[in-house]
Amino acid sequence: MHFAPSPVYLSVRKSKGSAEAEKISLRDFVESRMPSLHLPFVPAWWLFNGHLQTVYSVLGDFSKIDNVVYQRHHLRLMDGGTLGLDFTPVDDENINPETPIIVVMHGLTGGSYESYVRAILAPACAPVEQGGLGYRAVVINFRGCAGTPITSPRLYSGGYTDDLRQSLFYLSTMFPKAPLLGIGFSLGANVLTRYLGEEGENSRLMSGCVLGCPWDLTLNNKNLLSTFIGRHVFAKGMGANLQNVVKRHASALSKEPDTLMAKCVTTALAIKKPRLDEIDNTITRFVGGTSPPFPFDSLDDYYIWASSHKALGDIRVPFLTLNSADDPIVRSAPTDSAGNGYVAICLTLGGGHLGWFEASDRIGRVKRWIKKPVLEWLRAFGEGVIHEGQRGLPLHEVDGFLKEVGRDDIGCKEVDDEAGFVVRTNKGQEGLLSGL
C-alpha cells in the first residue's frame, strides 16, 4: 500500500447509522475498514503466475456463478452516438432513493456480462437479507460493446471521457439523492481515472476504485511488446477483439464511404492477426473521440494524451487503485500517489490481469480475492462516509438534451428504441475473448 505523506481527512460516521461523525485520514480509513488488504493474496496453486491467472480469466467458465440480471436503457448523445446502460437489480422499486449506485466502466471490448464485473455486482446488489450490500449498479457499455448499437461515425477509446461524463448527467438526474461510486476495470479504469482528474472537485462520483488500470499507455505498450508472450498472445488477443468489434459494426461505421471513419475501418480490417497497437494506430487514434483532439498525428501522440497516470494529482475524491505486479498486460504501475492524499495505491505481488484467483473451499474451484477489498471499499463509502449532497455543476435541458450549464457541446437523452429490455446473460460475446 502506498499513501501520500500529507493526509486527506474524510468525514466518517462513528458507527453504522450514527449521526455522530469523526475526521479520519484516508490511510486510517483504508486500514480500519478494509481488513482484507492486510491479509496475503495466495494464488491457487495451479494458477501460480500472472500469465496463468490472466489466461484463466479469459478461458475459465464463469457462466454458472455470479448471476446478474440487467435492464438496459439507451442514451442518445448529441453527436448521434448511443450508449447502453445496464441497470441492476431490475426490481428496484422498493429501494431507498438514497441507496448508493455503483457506476461501472468495463474493459477494452467487454461489457456488463464480464465475469470480473459480475463478481463484484452479484454480491454488491444482492439484498441485505441475503448477505449482499443492497446497492444499485449500472454498467456503462461503450459504443458498439455488449450489444450496444453504433449510430454515429465514432468509436470509444481509453482517453475519451465525455461518454462517461454524459452518462453521469443522466444518472445524477435520475437518482438525485444517491451517492455515485465509480469502479473501472482495465481500459475502463483508465477512462475513470482521467474523468476524476479532469473534474477534480466537480466530479459527480463520490469515490473511485480502479483495477488493472494501464496508466502510462506509451510505456505499457513498449513493455507489452518486449516479451514474446506479450507481443504474440496478449497484444494479438486484444487486437483481434477490437478488430472484431469494428468488423461487427463495419456497415454502420462505413455508411459514408468517403469519410475518415470508413477509410479507417477498411485499413483496420485489412490487417491480419493485428496487435492492439496496430488497431489503435489505424483507427483509434483517428476516431476514438471528438475533434479536437482527434485525430492524432501519431500513435505516440494518442498514447501520451490518453494516459491516466498524470491525472492522479488532480483527483479530489477518495480513490483506490489495485494492480498486480505480475500482470502480463499492464507491465508498469505507479507506486506513488503524485503527492495526493486522496489516492491510495495497492500493488499485489500476484493476480495477473483482472484475475486474483485464490483457492475456494470447494476442491478444484477458485474464487476472486479481489471481491473482498472492493466490497469493503463500497460498503465503507455507502455506510460509513458522510456525503454532502450531489456533486457536479448544475444541469439543464436544452432541446430535449440534458446538458451541464456552461457547456453546450455534449448532452444526452434517453431513447425508447429497445430501451428497458432485460439482459440475461452470464456468457461473453460471440467472437470475442472475455476477461480483457
Summarize the entry for a quick read.
With 436 residues, the protein is of the alpha/beta class. Helix content is 30%, strand content 19%.
Task: Provide the descriptors you would attach to this structure in a database record.
eleven-stranded mixed β-sheet, alpha/beta, AB_hydrolase_fold, AB_hydrolase_1, Rossmann fold, two-stranded antiparallel ribbon, globular, 436 residues
Describe the structure.
It is a single chain. This protein is α/β, with parallel strands linked by helices and 436 residues long. The chain folds into two domains: 2-216 and 307-424, Alpha/Beta hydrolase fold, catalytic domain (Rossmann fold), CATH 3.40.50; 223-305, no CATH class. Helices cover 30% and strands 19% of the residues. The chain contains twelve helices and 17 strands. The protein has helices spanning 26-33, 50-59, 115-124, 162-174, 187-199, 217-224, 228-248, 250-253, 260-270, 276-287, 299-306, 371-384, and strands at residues 2-3, 9-13, 21-25, 69-77, 82-88, 101-105, 136-141, 180-185, 207-211, 319-324, 343-348, 357-359, 366-368, 395-398, 401-404, 412-415, 422-424. The strands form four sheets. Strands 1, 4, 5, 6, 7, 8, 9, 10, 11, 16 and 17 form an eleven-stranded mixed β-sheet that branches. Helix 5 links the parallel strand 8 and strand 9 (207-211). Helix 3 packs across helix 12 and helix 9 (260-270) runs antiparallel to helix 10 (276-287). The chain is globular, with a radius of gyration of 20 Å. The mean pLDDT is 93.
